Amino acid sequence: MVFPSQHPASHLTARFILHCWSKRSFSSFSSHLRSRPISIWGLLSDFNSLPIRPHFAGPKISTRIFTPNRPFSNSIGSLAAMTSDYKLKDLASLADLKDGEKREVSIEGLEEAKLLFVKLDGQVHALTARCTHYGAPLVKGVLTPDGRITCPWHGACFNVTTGDIEDAPAPNALEKFDVFEKDSAVYVKADAEALKRNGRQPINQCSIVGDDRIVIIGGGSGTFGAVEALREQGFKGKITIISREPNPPLDRTKLSKALIPDASKLLLRPAQWYASVGIDLVSDNATAVDFDKKTVSTDSGKSFPYTKLILATGGVPRRLPMPGIKDLGNVFVLRFVTDVQEILNAVGDKNKNIVIIGSSFIGMEVGNALSKENKVTIIGMESAPLERVMGAKVGKIFQRLLEKQGVNFHMSASVEKASPSEKDPSKVGAVHLKDGTVLPADLVILGVGVSPATEFLKSNEAVTLEQDGSLKTDESFAVNGLKDVYAIGDIATYPYHGPGAGQGDRTHVRIEHWDVAQNAGRSVGFTLAHALASPPKEVRPKAFIPIFWSALGQQLRYCGNTMNGWDDVILTGDPDNFKFAAFYTLGDTVVASASMNMDPLNSKCAELMRRGNMPTKKELEKGLDILSLDLPSAIRM
């Protein structure tokens, strides 16, 4: 029994020739054949990865543009030499797999390589075994009846039929492998490097075609999601990223969680990748947009025309106006790699007195990262860290966790001022609280939130900013009142579709989560690629549940949203030992969940919320186990 490959070469060759014939370009195809040996992968690259759609076994979940998932040489002989049959160690027969089962399987002769086998609707799929984000074992993830598998850690989601990315923050799709039975054993056909590699290689070539120009202002997670989706979906127009940062998009979450000062270790893709797929990286600051002429102006005096504009400028860290805090040295915010570098330079030989103002996620993460070799004190205005978001009961769990790491807390406290150091009066020396407490400080880090980075739009008469400085959008993230303009990430206030959002005129929310920005970017990229196709196609934006995570000595997972408020928290598990789940309820509706050391509970909750099947407060109070629930096929968001 042989299961069809994701992209059988024979099918592709025939369909590629038909495509060239239909486009009256067979002469160029014939010329190519005369010039060198045939390679279907080389041909696809030379013809700009034409949108050839493969046949898939099993249920069709989403339609994707085909792109080669690994590099091949320019001959069919070489292609054949690169693939071999590999016998599996832990699976004697495909019949051993039950429908709906997922199993991690080892490969004989490749001890470091493993595959994930999934059986769904009678079809067997062999895929990369680890999430391409941070390497979580997908066998411990959440599988849905319609063929989505969600990482147990951070919510990255993949299509098991194709391996394609369904939800962020995965940077790469999963590799998909041929699987067959022979001599009472199960084999996969693949090359060794693909089996060892964690996921499919990204698109690595695209020549610019046509006059469409997409300009993206901002260089963060949302931008990365947008350009990935645009190229995945076959958009071949010009893309320009204008960012004040000198580096391409990077994993900003690691700045506060790990204080990594080297941008090269954080990049989601190297700079050369953007060049190879026809994306221009412009390190400049956008100063104005002419929405009538469709141009973006920058500090350097340049002007960039656009067909479609994506605003993804992120947030600006808030500063405090108190004496000393606003004007002394060694008072830092954290947003960019340069901020981390400055903080670490100030820490120097360690054993420093570090005061963090703000018990936000940024403040707590930085405090945790610096506490091992320094004396860290966190000041918060609430009675417990993160009380506004997580509630005092859960916030105190995080406080105890960081106190075990040596962090000191001053809660329900207000800062009056900072005073200069006796050794160097230009730098901070102490932080003074309004109750008279004086905290020695070699450096101060502010974690008091961010504001939407829309200052450059405030004087623009065409723009209506919300009270908080954000831009209101529709479900496709198109900015209200502006043509061909989209907003994503920290600056976007968009319609929410999760539990507690209401019906009809849905609640609009602004969510400052890295994962949300990337999913919004992927949504806009998907929409624009189809809108600019020939012929254009209107697609429905894909709703998603907000997910975030935090490093607080233990890993916190969170999904959902409480912008409409919550009136109770159901706490289960063993909070004293930092193994718990918290369910945030509004009336009888669970609007959000948080967990620690309970994976994959939050991934399961996110899928239940997405499908409109999250249990009620009453059901949870009766002891219902979320992980024991089956997932329905229908999506009700």
Q: Distance between the terminal alpha carbons, to the nearest Å?
A: 39 Å
The dominant shape is globular
Instruction: From the alpha carbons, calculate the radius of gyration and give it in angstroms.
Output: 26 Å
The total count of strands amounts to 37
Briefly note the CATH topology name of the largest domain: Rieske Iron-sulfur Protein
Helix content: 10-25%
Task: Assign the CATH superfamily of the largest domain.
Answer: Rieske [2Fe-2S] iron-sulphur domain
Number of helical elements: 15
Low-confidence region ranges: 1-81
Estimated share of beta-strand residues: 25-35%
CATH architecture of the largest domain: 3-layer Sandwich
Summarize the biggest pleated sheet: 7 strands, antiparallel
GO molecular function: 2 iron, 2 sulfur cluster binding; metal ion binding; oxidoreductase activity, acting on NAD(P)H
Protein name: Rhodocoxin reductase
Cofactor: FAD
Keywords: 2Fe-2S, FAD, Flavoprotein, Iron, Iron-sulfur, Metal-binding, Oxidoreductase
Keywords:
FAD/NAD(P)-binding domain, 4 domains, seven-stranded antiparallel sheet, five-stranded parallel sheet, 37 strands, 27% strand, disordered N terminus, oxidoreductase, iron
